[in-house]
């Protein structure tokens, strides 16, 4: 047993009181020093904070003075501080992979309350680590080159910001957007809270910059369909859907759009409130400036005739023979800025959206209040002419509601306040806001709330029960044709029925419907509701657990424009740092085949999802390509000859760990050893 | 490894209680289920302290020998956890773990180890609460079974995989072996295995 020859140091962390409150740290440390001495432990110490420089110096000093050959730190999860303690070992000249961090915080003190049982488990966990570390071997990190090109998925404000930051630093970017134009949801908005900047005025220059930038290749009307490889070396397939427009020849004059005889409801950009042609640019400032022809709705594709666009196009840019094509790009890093979708307000039937014509969603109202929108900025009822005399804005529609989404959508309070202000600006209508809580924590947000209050907007605290057009009380006789909002006013403590002409539902933000497929495609995790999970929610908020894949904007969860822009810049900074390094070290967790023991049975050959396993028919042996291997270990477990070993997670390491974990009984005693 | 020694089973119950406290090994994957355990910790969600975790890169790394080793060293139960099918960090290796575990259970059952002692748990990195709930459920199921009794010498664990297999072969008359009819039954369905 190799650990008997090793000189192992055990370091048990109090983590302030995080561990020490539930685990008797001193006793555990003392126990390890005495009871595990036969397993190679030569020193066991405890420290208030092992991760502090004093704790790390403790390890370094012992390595130098006591000649430690292995180190076990019992502290937090390896996902937190594995690097820290490996670094301490490396500084003292010990190969960093000879250090094992075992978790007695996330896996012990934080999840158990019985001090005796938690202390016993901590002993077992340390014994597992001590036996395991004896089987560790020195390793060198693998160094992989970093391709300086970056893929940004999603062309909203977060994606545009990321792409511009990276391209401005001089490195190429591929920006992929599903819609015909970049711009995302921000392009649909009229004003932005709380400053009331015109959204288009601040966004379109950024869009133009991204479109004109030499370093940015736009792939609009496109989707990522395949991702292979690993950090620094991804191969990505982008499906560019046929636009039926030759981008080389198109000048963006718009004649095709003018001459196209078919009008369809625009459910994307105009949120269903307006129409567009079949040959169309979603909005005048679209980037790129060339339109698309919406194949499924086009008369030519349906009946074989029409081609009005082709007849009138002055540059012969219409090309009905275009087909979808796959573009394959090599990139080093990926940023997901895939944004959000609006909660479908039809799901809350009692609010009447889709049934009562004068109930609108927040996105419909954004388009209505936009001067370039379907009503040219006039706030009118569904009939298109009548100005409302009173408007009710219902907050938290599909948010903070366990029937739909438990999360707060973060932006709807401010958006609703903005709507209240805009309604006052454009009409003489009275505005009621129906809210649960007003959340206005951003810079100058609460000041905006105060301003809207002073403007005379009425606030009713309570979740709306129903929006209805059926009158119930004699006093409602004059409300014929209007909508009644039934709500419990929780500040007054009674039910109220408030007649209004127009209702706006502040619909919440949801992850895109295909968020899970996106996560699978890029090999990352998302929460059960579909938001991307950060590597660390506070300290690493734009990285994911998959090296080389970052996220920005609402893909991570609901957030406003300033936060999305900051996310984009943060992701760009992380990536630029890596590009500057030209290569990075990755964990040497790889499978290798001992050819002398390989019988060529080929059982492992079909198990690898990365095709990293190659069979050499001439020598009748199998080999693992370390560049493709991702270290899952499935082939290691499958090899009947034990010819494949996995660095970092070898059979010997895991079997020893099992033995160590089971050395200690549930009550914390070394289990009685009976000679066989 | 000290294969010449044998450990006695779980040992005395903690002071003050007479309840049997099972000792269990839980295999987790680096990406989903270990992260779920981390999340349960960060959120301070309490669950029983009986399961001792081992982090693998992927549930696909699970060598059946690891499970046999755990039982041989005196574990009363083993939990194998990984990403949900379709959400594996390594695309589909958790399915390979499922496949192996389904076969392995037939071996462990033939050795007289009750199916509830070898459980599979899918948990995504976001499911800290679920991880804690399921660990609680699995611990109670194993607790209800009592200590793992090995063959005729019910008081002792065999100490090595080899000894366990030998014990299973020679000591299988008491408790009676699983009948061939049981063995020939089709493998349990996915839902059954994951339940």
Multimer state: heterodimer
Characterize the main sheet of chain B: 4 strands, parallel
CATH class of the domain at 341-510 in chain A: Alpha Beta
How much helical structure, as a percent, in the residues of chain B? 25-40%
Measured on Cα atoms, how large is the radius of gyration of chain A?
A: 31 Å
Name the largest protein-protein interface in this structure. Answer: A-B, 67 and 71 residues
**How far apart, in Å, are the first and last alpha carbons of chain B?**
35 Å
Over all CA atoms, what is the radius of gyration of chain B? 17 Å
Any idea what the shape of chain A is?
A: globular
Kindly report the CATH topology of the domain at 341-510 in chain A.
FAD/NAD(P)-binding domain
- What CATH first level of chain B would be assigned? Alpha Beta
Task: Give start-end ranges of low-pLDDT stretches of chain A.
Answer: none
Indicate the percent of residues in helices of chain A. Answer: 25-40%
User: What best-fitting shape of chain B do the alpha-carbon axes yield?
Assistant: globular
CATH architecture title of chain B: 3-Layer(aba) Sandwich
What does this 3D model show about the protein?
The complex is a heterodimer of chains A (676) and B (195). Chain A is of the alpha/beta class and 676 residues long. Among the domains of chain A are: 2-141, Rossmann fold; 242-323, Alpha-Beta Plaits; 341-510, FAD/NAD(P)-binding domain; 591-646, Alpha-Beta Plaits, CATH 3.30.70. Chain A is built from 17 helices and 35 strands. Chain A has a five-stranded parallel beta sheet, covered by helices on one side. In chain A, strands 20-27-21-22-23 form a five-stranded parallel beta sheet. The two termini of chain A are 18 Å apart. In chain A, 50% of the residues are buried. Chain B is of the alpha/beta class and 195 residues long. Chain B has one domain (24-194): Rossmann fold. Helices cover 38% and strands 13% of the residues of chain B. In chain B, strands 3-2-4-5 form a four-stranded parallel beta sheet, with helices on both faces. In chain B, strand 4, helix 3 (93-110) and strand 5 form a beta-alpha-beta unit. The longest helix of chain B has 18 residues, at 93-110. Chain B is globular and about 45 Å long. The relative contact order of chain B is 0.20. Strand 35 of chain A pairs antiparallel with strand 1 (5-7) of chain B.
């Amino acid at each position: 047993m190799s650990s008997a020859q090793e000189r192992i140091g055990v370091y048990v962390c109090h983590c302030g009181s995080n561990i020490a409150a539930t685990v008797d740290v001193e006793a555990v440390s003392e126990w390890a020093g005495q009871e595990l001495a036969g397993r190679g432990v030569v020193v066991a110490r405890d420290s208030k904070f092992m991760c502090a420089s004093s704790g790390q110096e403790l390890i370094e000093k012992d390595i130098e003075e006591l000649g430690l050959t292995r180190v076990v730190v019992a502290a937090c999860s390896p996902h937190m501080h594995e690097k820290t303690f490996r670094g301490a070992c490396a500084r003292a000249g010990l190969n960093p992979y000879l250090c094992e961090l075992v978790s007695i915080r996330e896996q012990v003190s934080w999840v158990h309350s019985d001090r005796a049982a938690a202390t016993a488990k901590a002993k077992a966990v340390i014994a597992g680590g001590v036996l395991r570390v004896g089987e560790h071997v020195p390793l060198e990190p693998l160094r992989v080159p970093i391709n300086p090109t970056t893929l940004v998925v999603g062309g909203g404000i977060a994606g545009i910001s990321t792409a511009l930051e990276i391209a401005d630093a001089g490195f190429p970017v591929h920006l992929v957007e599903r819609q015909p134009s970049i711009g995302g949801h921000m392009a649909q908005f009229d004003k932005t809270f709380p400053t009331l900047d015109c959204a288009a005025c601040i966004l379109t220059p950024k869009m133009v910059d991204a479109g004109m930038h030499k370093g940015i290749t736009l792939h609009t009307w496109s989707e990522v369909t395949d991702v292979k490889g690993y950090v620094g070396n991804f191969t990505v397939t982008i499906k560019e859907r046929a636009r039926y427009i030759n981008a080389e020849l198109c000048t963006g004059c718009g004649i095709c759009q003018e001459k196209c005889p078919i009008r369809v409801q625009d459910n994307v950009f105009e949120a269903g409130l307006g129409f567009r042609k079949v040959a169309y640019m979603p909005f005048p400032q679209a980037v790129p400036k060339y339109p698309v022809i919406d194949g499924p709705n086009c008369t030519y594709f349906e009946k074989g005739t029409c081609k009005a666009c082709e007849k009138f196009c002055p540059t012969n840019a219409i090309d009905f023979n275009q087909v979808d094509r796959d573009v394959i790009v090599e990139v080093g890093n990926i940023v997901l800025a895939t944004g959000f979708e609006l909660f479908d307000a039809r799901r809350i039937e009692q609010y009447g959206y889709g049934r009562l014509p004068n109930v609108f969603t927040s996105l419909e109202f954004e388009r209505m209040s936009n001067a370039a929108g379907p009503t040219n900025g006039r706030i009118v009822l569904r009939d298109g002419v009548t100005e409302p005399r009173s408007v009710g804005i219902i907050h938290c529609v599909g948010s903070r509601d366990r029937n739909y989404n438990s999360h707060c959508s973060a932006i709807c309070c401010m958006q609703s306040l903005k709507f209240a202000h805009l309604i006052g600006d454009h009409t003489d209508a009275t505005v009621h806001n129906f809210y649960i809580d007003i959340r206005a924590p951003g810079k100058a947000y609460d000041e905006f709330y105060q301003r809207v209050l002073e403007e005379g907007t009425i606030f009713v605290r309570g979740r709306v029960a129903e929006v209805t057009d059926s009158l119930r009380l004699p006093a409602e006789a004059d409300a014929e044709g209007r909508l009644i909002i039934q709500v419990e006013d929780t500040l007054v403590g009674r039910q109220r029925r408030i007649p209004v002409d127009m209702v706006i539902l502040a619909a919440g933000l949801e992850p895109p419907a295909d968020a899970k497929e996106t996560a699978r495609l890029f090999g990352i995790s998302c929460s059960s509701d579909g938001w991307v999970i950060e590597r660390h929610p506070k300290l690493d908020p734009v990285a994911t657990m998959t090296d080389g894949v970052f996220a920005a904007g609402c893909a991570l969860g609901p957030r406003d424009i300033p936060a999305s822009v900051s996310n984009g810049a943060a992701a760009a900074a992380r990536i630029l740092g890596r590009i500057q390094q030209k290569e990075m070290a990755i964990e040497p967790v790889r499978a290798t085949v001992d050819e002398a023991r390989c019988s060529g049975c080929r059982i492992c050959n079909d198990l690898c999802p990365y095709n990293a396993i190659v069979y050499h028919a001439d020598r009748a042996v199998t080999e693992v390509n370390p560049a493709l291997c991702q270290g899952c270990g499935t082939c290691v477990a499958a090899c009947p000859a034990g010819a494949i070993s996995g660095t970092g997670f070898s059979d010997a390491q895991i079997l020893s760990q099992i033995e160590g974990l089971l050395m200690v009984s549930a009550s914390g005693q070394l289990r009685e050893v009976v000679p066989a | 490894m000290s294969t010449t020694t044998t450990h006695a089973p779980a040992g005395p119950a903690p002071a003050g209680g007479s309840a049997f406290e099972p000792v269990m090994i839980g295999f987790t994957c680096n990406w989903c289920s270990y992260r779920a355990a981390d999340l349960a910790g960060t959120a301070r969600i309490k669950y029983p302290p009986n399961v001792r975790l081992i982090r693998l890169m992927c549930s696909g790394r699970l060598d059946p020998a690891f499970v046999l080793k755990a039982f041989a060293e005196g574990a009363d139960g083993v939990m194998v956890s990984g990403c949900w099918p379709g959400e594996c960090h390594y695309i589909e290796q958790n399915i390979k773990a499922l496949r192996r575990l389904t076969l392995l259970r037939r071996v462990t059952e033939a050795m007289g180890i009750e199916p509830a002692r070898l459980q599979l748990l899918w948990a995504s990195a976001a499911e800290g609460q679920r991880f804690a709930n399921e660990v609680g459920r699995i611990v109670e199921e194993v607790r209800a079974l009592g200590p793992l009794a090995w063959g005729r010498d019910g008081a002792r664990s065999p100490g090595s995989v080899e000894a366990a297999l030998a014990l299973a072969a020679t000591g299988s008359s008491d408790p009676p072996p699983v009948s061939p009819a049981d063995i020939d039954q089709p493998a349990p369905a996915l839902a059954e295995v994951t339940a």
